[in-house]
Amino acid sequence: MAGHSKWKNIQGRKNAQDAKRGKIFQKLSRELYMAAKSGGPDPDSNPSLRMVLDKAKAANMPNDNIQRAIKKASAAGEGENYDEVIYEGYGPEGVAILVYALTDNRNRTSTNVRVAFNKNGGSLGETGSVSYMFDRKGYLAIDREGLTVDEDTMMMSVLEAGGEDLETSDEVFEIYTDPSDFQSVRDALKADGYQLAQAELTMVPQTLIELAEKQAQKVQQLIDALEDDDDVSEVYTSGEM
């Protein structure tokens, strides 16, 4: 993990996502609905729902929207159903791309994803073609603004909580965990009084491809096209934007 800063990519894409806030809320509503439907509406007994709630709050999703999605999942009847589908491929400059989607129509989604790749200098690959280049990790970020804790103290807190690695920059502490330890590490850090700016399960590239500005713009164009699809929930890349 050394030298990897997910926070740079998060912040680099924030403005673009702000412009698509309504679409992001729509996608989060779908994730909340599926998590609550599969594991129940109580986040204390449903870790999946608790994670999506953290994600929704980090995106500043209104509480009314959150409760509406959970309530919809709790209503009687079968309701809607979505499948999680993963697409793998390459973008411009040979950057690896992983796409996670929640869809009620696999044919529609696969067609849209393929078109997005083809029109933006990428190519959709077979299952397993790039996923081996990524590791599943828990990721937490703590904003350093106003925080008096130094790196050594933070590292001690991370290790005591069960975290695996700490990356430090002037702006943020970034903590990585084994996926199975994510919930306990997050809860321990919260109990220590730390305010989390980001908390999620994510896919972390084993090797980053550093991109110049023009190269990054090409990759970002593909990512934007994928994220613009209503069915796409997450896009992961090995490019450092």
Structure description:
It contains 8 helices and 10 strands. The protein is of the alpha+beta class and 241 residues long. It folds into 3 domains: 69 residues, Arc Repressor Mutant, subunit A (Orthogonal Bundle); 85 residues, YebC, transcriptional regulation domain (Alpha-Beta Plaits); 72 residues, 2-Layer Sandwich (Alpha-Beta Plaits). Helix 2 runs antiparallel to helix 3 and helix 2 packs parallel to helix 4. The mean pLDDT is 89. Keywords: Cytoplasm, DNA-binding, Transcription, Transcription regulation.
Strand percentage: 15-25%
Indicate the structural class: alpha+beta
Question: What's the helix count?
Answer: 8
N→C terminal distance: 17 Å
Biggest sheet overview: 4 strands, antiparallel
Quaternary organisation: single chain
Q: Overall pLDDT, averaged?
A: 89
| Uncertain parts | none
Subcellular location: Cytoplasm
Domain TACO1/YebC-like N-terminal: 5-74
Pfam family, one: Transcrip_reg
Keywords: Cytoplasm, DNA-binding, Transcription, Transcription regulation
Structural topology:
Blueprint: H1 6-18, H2 21-39, H3 47-58, H4 63-74, E1 83-90, E2 96-103, H5 106-119, E3 123-124, E4 134-143, H6 151-161, E5 165-168, E6 172-177, H7 182-191, E7 196-205, E8 209-210, H8 213-227, E9 232-237, E10 239-240
Parallel strand pairs: 8-10
Antiparallel strand pairs: 1-2, 1-3, 2-9, 4-6, 4-7, 5-6
Helix pairs in contact: 2-3, 2-4
